[in-house]
Specification:
The chain has 680 residues and is an alpha/beta fold. Helix content is 24%, strand content 30%. The protein folds into 5 domains: 2-79 and 656-679, no CATH class; 85-221 and 612-651, Rossmann fold; 225-319, Immunoglobulins (Immunoglobulin-like, Sandwich); 325-522, 3-Layer(aba) Sandwich (Rossmann fold); 531-603, Immunoglobulin-like (Sandwich). It has a 9-stranded mixed beta sheet. It has a 5-stranded parallel beta sheet with strand order 4-3-5-6-33, sandwiched between helices. Helix 2 (41-73) runs antiparallel to helix 12. The two termini are 42 Å apart.
Length: 680
């Protein structure tokens, strides 16, 4: 038997008090006068012996009563496991603060009850113990050990969070937080509703020999409808055109959803609405069609009305409607009339044409596409500018010349790590296939492109050191006619033919001009529509900071939340790093000196939308599968006294109640002896 509070055993000194009282009472005599005491001699002797026996019994009962009471205050227990009590305890307590813990309970919410259980656990330990108290936020403060008062104080500032963690993430964080502690007695407590989407028990692998306690906060499985995701069919938007937005709505409940309104708002104005039907435990995709009425950044969100889970009722996103795409065409002497018809006469493009001898390099910065049309030689200055342009995210289209200088072109394409032009092959050859899955063709051919009339070339260039990231068009003999190489953040499109009659009719065919047209608009394709809090930690914006003193700021629209993200200049772009600063979904303006540069949307992770939980039997089966080598115990927070369970896990089986009962028995025995013996 061991004692939790051994200092209380000093109370055994109180046993001297009844002993001294009884010794003092034995020495006190009273004299009674009788005229004749001869007949009282036997009675007196008998009374004296009974009195001494009565006092001894009362003395023993009082001594035993005091001893039992003192022992109860010392909190005796029978150890349930072998522990090194001299090294103290290190206690880790995880409290799940994901959105699913917002579920209601008779007292408050699952999260509130979980925090209160964490307080009871901490109070069950001593001030000499250390604590690591953490939740899904994984803050710096949570990554260090605390004393008892600090651990209790930390819990005061906690609230639910959009973050959710898996078992592997929890165990890794916990391992790092406990690395510097010298405590040997390890206790690990996990307070959660154990939602199946987050807690995959196959990931649980404890490396230390500590004791694990799973405190199950029983939650009710609730029907829930969430907006899962959205995407556009068209990669580029122009003012006045019709847009089609695809929306996926997920029904996480056991009942069918009938005619639920789905609304789309753009820049504060409702643009579209649909009545959706989603069967139980499935999803449905819907299309919302509307007109793009204005240019610039569009701040939008989708909305459904569903209770009681509301965090996934809205999906925020942003996109940009462009007025024109800037294209620069560089030619040798005279402009190419076919390229001029494709780019200069199309309102989609803002085309700047310039001879190779008079290049305006300032246009490169704003150009989405640069076309080199039959340039014979590449100067070192032009080579450097084009290499920098491509690496910073630009798109370069090369149409060869029959008089090209092989040495200069080889040097330029070698810098970009692209294939070089080889021999000019004078052979009539038909295009054999096109890559309809390529983004340069996708969505441009009706009916799947069956029975296409392929163009024909009378001559073409072969390539040396051939390699490509994407083939767009291929000749019948397998030689590439048009292909793409990704270079840095940009891309280089190499053509085996030029846009003139010397190469046949290929340059007049629609199948050749479709990828050239899409090459211009693809460079302004939409960036990511939205970010997921806790998953997406960075995003680039098309804005180059002029100086080190320029600082971009993220500010929540319609709110007071404001952040200064980490930012780095990368060529023509600036990369923003969020580093888990954001914890509120919505539309955020990216501002510079008070002016809005662009907008970014953030949404909560939809993992919490599926409200299914492990049952007590399922967790019990997992514990059994671990065997005796792993100490794991399940505690049901709804049906058991957490404090009692924690005390038993720390100190083994407590005995103080039995000693309190013994003290009461001895006290009752004393009262009975004093009263009944006297009456007799």
């Amino acid at each position: 038997m061991h004692f939790t509070e051994p200092l209380f055993l000093i109370g055994y000194v109180a046993i001297l008090v009844p002993i001294l009282i009884h010794l003092f009472n034995f020495r006190r005599y009273k004299t009674f006068y009788f005229s004749n005491v001869k007949m009282l001699q036997d009675i007196a002797e008998k009374t004296k012996r009974e009195s001494q026996l009565k006092h001894l019994i009362v003395l023993c009962l009082r001594i035993l009563g005091i001893a039992a009471l003192v022992t109860a205050f010392a909190q005796p227990y029978i150890p349930s496991r072998q522990q090194n009590s001299q090294s103290g305890n290190l206690v880790t307590i995880y409290v799940d603060n994901s959105f699913s813990m917002d579920g209601n309970t008779p007292d408050a919410t699952l999260f509130y009850d979980g925090v209160e259980n964490a307080r009871r656990i901490i109070n069950s330990f001593q001030y000499a113990d250390q604590f690591v108290v953490y939740n899904n936020d994984f803050s710096a403060q949570q990554a260090r050990s605390l004393n008892k008062d600090e651990a209790l104080k930390v819990l005061d500032n906690w609230s639910t969070s959009p973050n959710s963690r898996s078992w592997s993430e929890l165990l890794t964080f916990e391992k790092n937080a406990c690395a510097e502690s010298g405590k040997r007695n390890l206790f690990h407590y996990y307070i959660s509703d154990f939602q199946k989407n987050n807690f995959d028990f196959t990931q649980y692998k404890r490396e230390d020999s500590g004791s694990t306690f799973l405190i199950d906060m029983p939650a009710k499985e609730t029907d829930n409808v969430s907006i899962d995701s959205c995407w556009f069919l068209s990669p580029v938007f122009r003012e006045g055109q019709q847009a089609t937005l695809n929306v996926r709505v997920r029904n996480c409940g056991d009942g069918d959803v009938i005619k639920l309104p789905l609304k789309l708002y753009v820049n504060g104005e409702q643009k579209a609405m649909a009545a959706i039907d989603v069967t139980a435990n499935s999803f449905a995709d819907y299309q919302l069609n509307y007109t793009l009425s204005s240019a610039g950044i569009q701040n939008a969100f989708l909305e459904v009305e569903d209770m009681p889970i509301t965090f996934d009722n809205k999906l925020f996103f942003t996109y940009e409607v462009s007025d024109a795409t800037h294209v620069a065409v560089i030619y040798p002497n005279t402009p190419n009339r076919y390229l001029n018809a494709l780019y200069a006469k199309d309102s989609v493009f803002s085309c700047a044409t310039m001879p190779v001898g008079k290049i305006d390099y300032s246009c490169f910065k704003n150009s989405s596409l640069i076309v080199l049309s039959e340039i014979e030689s590449i100067s070192s200055g032009l080579s450097d500018e084009l290499a920098q342009y491509v690496n910073n995210g630009g798109t370069l289209l090369v149409l060869p010349s029959t008089k090209m200088n092989g040495a200069s072109w080889d040097a330029f394409l070698g810098i970009l790590n692209c294939p070089q032009y080889g021999n000019l092959v004078a052979q009539e050859l038909k295009v054999g296939s096109i890559n309809q899955e390529s983004s340069y063709f996708k969505g441009s051919l009706q009916g799947g492109g069956e029975r296409l009339d392929f163009p024909k070339a009378t001559q073409y260039f072969s390539f040396k050191n051939l390699h490509s990231d994407e083939n767009i068009m291929t000749f019948e003999n397998g030689e590439p006619a048009l292909f793409v190489n990704n270079i840095g953040k940009g891309r280089v499109i190499l053509s085996a033919v030029a846009a003139n009659d010397d190469f046949g009719n290929i340059h007049k065919h629609a199948l050749f001009f479709i990828p050239l047209h899409n090459a211009g608009i693809r460079s302004v394709m939409q960036r990511q529509l939205y970010n997921v809090i806790g998953k997406d930690h960075a995003q680039s914006i098309a804005k180059q900071m002029e100086g080190a003193e320029d600082v971009l700021t993220l500010k929540l629209q319609g709110g007071e939340t404001e952040y200064i993200p980490e930012q780095r200049n990368l060529g023509n772009e600036t990369m923003l790093y969020f580093n888990d600063q954001l914890n509120e979904a919505g539309l955020y303006d990216v501002t510079l000196d008070g002016a809005t540069v662009t907008s970014i949307a953030f949404n909560y992770d939809r993992k919490e939308s599926q409200l299914t939980y492990y049952t007590e039997d399922e967790i019990g089966d997992f514990i059994k599968s671990q065997g005796d080598s792993c100490s794991i115990e399940l505690i049901d927070a709804a049906s058991k006294d957490i404090t009692q369970n924690v005390a038993e896990s720390i100190h083994g089986h407590p005995l103080w109640r039995w000693f309190v009962l013994l003290a009461l028995i001895f006290l009752a025995g004393e009262v009975a002896v004093l009263r009944l013996w006297h009456s007799r």
